[in-house]
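look at this fold:
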Amino acid sequence: MTSFKASSCHSLNGSIKVPGDKSISHRSIMLGSIANGITNVSGFLEGEDSLATLRAFQQMGVQIERTGSNITIHGVGKHGLRSPSEPLDLGNSGTSIRLMSGLLSAQNFNSQLCGDESLSKRPMSRVIEPLSMMGALIDSNESKPPLSITGNQKLSAINYTLPVASAQIKSCLLLAGLYAEGETCIVENNTTRDHTERMLRGFGYLVNTSKGQISLMGGDELHACDIEVPSDISSAAFFIVAASIAKEADITLSAVNINPTRTGILDILALMGANITLTDERVVAGELVADIRVCSAELRGINIPQELVPLSIDEFPVIFIAASCATGETLLTGAKELRVKESDRIQVMADGLTILGIENEVLEDGIRIQ
C-alpha cells in the first residue's frame, strides 16, 4: 500500500499546463478509426482509460502509432473494423464501454466488452435499452458488464429522450446513429458535454442541434482531420481550487478547454467568490480554449444551482474541498449520477471529509457541507 504525506504551503504561484482532455482523447480514437484517411492527434491524454480505447481499436485492426502524446490513426472507414480475436478489455473506463457499445452494435461481427471489477458493477441498461430499440442485440450480466454484442444487425433510427443527463448515453446513440437507417434524434432536458457533436462536425459529418435536440442522418462517411487536444478542465480543477483556497496564490493554467458544457466548475466557484479570469480565449479544433488565471479568494458557501450539476459532474470531488474551506454551508442536490460512477463519489468524499473533521450530511442526491 502506498502512503502519501501532504504538507501545507504558504503560497501557490506560477504557470502550468495540465494534460489533455480525456473526453476528447477517447473520441479522437473512436472517430479517427472509422474515418477515411489519416488522423493526427496532438496532446492525447496518456491515461489508462484513453489508452484502453486506443488498444481496443488496435485489436479491431486499426493501425495506430503513438509517440508520447502524439497519435497517428490510419482510419479504416465506417465498415473497416475487424472482429477482435478476444474480448475488448476496457479497464475502468465507463466512457469507453458505453460509447463503444453503440459503435459496435452496428458492426458485422460479434464482440464482447469487459473491464475491471469496478466497471463490472456499472449500470449499462441506460445504453442497452435504447440500443435495443434501434435493433441491437446485446447480452449482459444483469445489465452490467461484460456486454456481448451480436453483429450483423440492421439498426433503425429512433427519437429518444434521455432519462438522465448523460453525455455517454447521448454519444452512444449518436455513434449507433451513424449506421442507422433514417434520422436519429436525441432530446436532452439538461445540457451535457457536446464533444461528440463538435468532433463529428470536424470529421465532416452533419449534426443538427436545436433547443435541446441533437440529430443526424445515418449513412454518411467521416473524413480524417487533425485534432489538437486542449488541457482537461477536470485536471485543471484541482489547481483552480488549490489556488482559490491557498494564501497569496496566483497561478495561470494554459490552453484549458472551456467548452461551455464543461465549465460548471468555473460558474460554481464564481458564485462562491473565487477570483478567476479567462484570457486569450480562442477556438482550437472546434473547441473553446483559454488561459485561466486564479488568485486567492475568500470563498463562501452556496446552494449549487441544479442546472450546473451536469456541467461539472466530474469536478464535484474537488468542489467539495472548496466547500470545506468556504465560510458557511454549501448544499448540493440533483447529483444522483455521482453515486453510479467508478465509486459512490458522494459517500466516498463524505467519508474522507469526516476523517478530516469536516461536518457534512449525505443526501440521497447530494451532500450538505458546513
Summary: The chain has a mean pLDDT of 96.
